[in-house]
Amino acid sequence: MRLFALPLTRARPGHSALVYYLAHFPPPKLPQKPETWASRLVKSAAHKAADTWDRWGKAPASNWKYKVHSFGVNAQARLEFEELALKAIHPSWGPPIPSGGKGAKELESSNGARTIQIPLIHPTSFGPIVKRPPLKDLEAYANFRAPKHQRLFWLYAIASPFTLPFTLIPIIPNIPFFFCVWRAWSNYRAFKAATYLSDLVASKAVIGAPSAQLEAIYSDSISRLRQSNMHNSEPSMVLDKTAITLLIEAFMLPPEISHELDRAIEQTALRTAKTDPTPEKKR
Q1: Of residues 199, 261, 266, the one with CA closest to residue 22
Q2: Which pLDDT value is given to residue 277?
Q3: Which of 39, 87, 121, 267 is most exposed, with minimal Cβ within 10 Å?
Q4: Domain housing 246
């Protein structure tokens, strides 16, 4: 398992730096087991739901199916990149955390060596950019996101039963119910991932891994952003889209990560472009 701390913006007075925390690990090689009827049923339902969703996207623009599909696509696009990054973390794929959560002792073997070492790869200039050490920022990030997603999970979970009266409307599915269930499940996954990261840091399983190769990518990115900046001030952004391709190639990351990093950069640009941006709650 590898963790990447990728600054997107500089820390400014009253504004924390935005950092994309990427977790990468290969899917576990599980032994092949006979497929049960329950797994076949779930797989069949998932395929049917995906096919239905695709058909709705191909319906006429005036049809309610197309409008629902467009709403779903737009809702997905508006999700915070932090939530999407957390949802991509599968705690079951990573190293197990000993019972005790944040009170767990440092993971050590009998000879005192750490049994688990997860590198947190970051540019060497992370500290000057973010104004906080990488491990401290990861800890603050996880501790901020976990309760936020836990609150949202309960909000949507509690709200979902109140949408049941919409089932009385003929023909049209109960869209509010499915939306609440989807948002509850999404926030639950983000909450579990943030808790997992917090426990990894508390167990001292994560170690800082400054990378000169990543620093070179950031240095070139900042140079490009300075050249394209119309003002004389230092640009807030530190990572551009050109750097994403170099990052993926340099660290042999899956190509699909490019889409998520593109989304993160676009959202970050919108946040920093506001005349009086509302900073993320101080971590």
Answers
A1: 261
A2: 45
A3: 39
A4: 2-25+56-273
Mean pLDDT, the chain cut into blocks of 10 residues (283 residues total): 94 89 78 64 67 79 79 81 93 74 47 72 95 95 96 92 72 76 91 95 93 96 84 78 94 93 92 60 49
Closest of 70, 33, 30, 37 to residue 53, by C-alpha:
70
Let me know if residue 233 belongs to a domain.
yes
Q: How far is CA 200 from the centre of its chain?
A: 17
- Domain total in the chain: 1
Residue 225 lies in a domain: yes
Of 179, 185, 177, nearest in space to 87 by CA? 185
pLDDT number for residue 205: 92
234 to 35, 108, 129: CA distances (angstroms): 57, 44, 12
As a whole number of angstroms, the distance between CA 77 and CA 266 comes to 11
Q: Is residue 216 part of a domain?
A: yes
Give residue 114's pLDDT.
56
- Nearest-CA neighbor of 12 among 129, 172, 138? 129
Number of helices (H) and strands (E), helices first, in the chain?
Answer: 9, 4
Could you tell me if residue 43 is inside a domain? no
Give the pLDDT confidence score for residue 278 in this predicted structure: 45
Note whether 163 and 177 are within 8 A (CB): yes
What pLDDT score was predicted for residue 266?
92
Phi, psi dihedrals of residue 31, rounded to the nearest 5°: -65, 140
Interatomic CA distance for residues 3 and 118, integer angstroms: 7
162-177 b/e with 16+ CB inside 10 Å = b? ebeeeeeeeeeebbeb
